[in-house]
């Protein structure tokens, strides 16, 4: 068996008295598409922040390619191939779409021309090239989400973490995103995604991890998980309520 690409062991994050992530362990192998689902407030985004270094774990280890990366700041982790989107897309509003994407591409391209070319290529990927010179403040919600994806892609990651990037997109935009991510996966990009849209989870992921109140309560194929009555009750029951 090849070594897992990403390995999470006993991850814990406490905020004062609240345990937002409670002893979570899982692996992601190279080339996989893994989804994380769970109710609002379950700790999914906090878990992502532990992987990318935005937060330090209270306990536990995160390893990439067999190297424990707990002590590395976000930019070092990005250099090792971790790309991410943020749930609340926060582009630099006074910069253009192209300039925002360049914030990502400067990681690997120090020459302005190269960074700009890479950023432009990523805007084409997400279908935003015609908006390249529009300020982010003028973009629609869906365009901002796509810009967030372009910025993350411009980091040239080997593992892409997507935090609810489909939220607020219409059906055809969701389909376009899935097509793009499938294409990128075919070219070797590994995905770990937080997703509320179960159609997307079913269509796009090979494995699903369910987080509830900070803990991993189930893991399996999309089919196994989405037909598991306990998961459906814990997740869908409370989401409706
Ligand atoms: N920086 C923080 N300080 C204090 N509590 C936080 C912080 N970030 C998240 N939380 C809390 O941790 C829990 C998990 O939040 P979050 O990871 O955003 O959940 P999810 O992404 O699954 O909706 C929530 O109760 C949230 O209020
Ligand atoms: Mg979240």
Notes on the protein architecture:
There is one protein chain. With 241 residues, the protein is α/β, with parallel strands linked by helices. It has a single domain, classed as Rossmann fold, CATH 3.40.50. Helices cover 38% and strands 24% of the residues. Strand 1 and strand 2 form a beta hairpin.
Distance between the termini: 43 Å
Mean pLDDT: 92
* CATH-defined architecture: 3-Layer(aba) Sandwich
Global structural class: alpha/beta
Overall shape = globular
Write out the distinct hetero groups bound to the structure.
adenosine-5'-diphosphate, magnesium ion
Rg calculated over all Cα atoms: 18 Å
- State the CATH class: Alpha Beta
Q: Kindly report the name of the CATH homologous superfamily.
A: P-loop containing nucleotide triphosphate hydrolases
Main sheet: which strands, in order across? 6-7-8-3-9-10
Beta strands, count: 10
Largest sheet: 6 strands, mixed
Q: What series of H and E elements makes up the topology? A: EEEHEEHEHHHEHEHEEHH
Strand content: 15-25%
Q: What number of structural domains do the residues give? A: 1
């Amino acid at each position: 068996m090849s070594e897992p690409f990403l390995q999470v062991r006993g991850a814990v994050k406490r905020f004062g008295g609240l345990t937002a992530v409670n002893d979570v362990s899982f692996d992601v192998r190279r080339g996989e598409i893994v989804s994380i689902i769970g109710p609002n407030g379950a700790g999914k985004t906090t878990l992502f922040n532990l992987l990318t270094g935005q937060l330090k774990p209270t306990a536990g280890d995160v390893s990439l390619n067999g190297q424990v990366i707990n002590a590395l700041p976000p930019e070092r982790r990005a250099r090792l191939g971790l790309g991410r989107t943020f749930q609340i897309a926060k582009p630099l509003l006074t910069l253009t779409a192209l300039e925002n994407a360049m914030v990502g591409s400067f990681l690997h391209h120090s020459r302005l021309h190269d960074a700009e070319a890479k950023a432009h290529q990523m805007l084409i990927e997400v279908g935003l090239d015609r908006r390249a010179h529009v300020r982010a403040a003028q973009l629609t919600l869906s365009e901002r989400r796509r810009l967030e994806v372009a910025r993350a892609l411009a980091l040239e990651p080997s593992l892409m973490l997507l935090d609810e990037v489909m939220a607020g997109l219409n059906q055809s935009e969701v389909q376009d995103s899935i097509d793009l991510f499938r294409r990128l996966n075919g070219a070797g990009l590994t995905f770990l995604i937080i997703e509320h849209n179960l159609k997307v989870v079913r269509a796009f992921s090979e494995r699903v991890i369910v987080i509830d109140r900070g803990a991993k309560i189930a893991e399996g194929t999309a089919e196994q998980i989405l037909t598991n009555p306990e998961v459906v009750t814990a997740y869908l029951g409370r989401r409706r309520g």
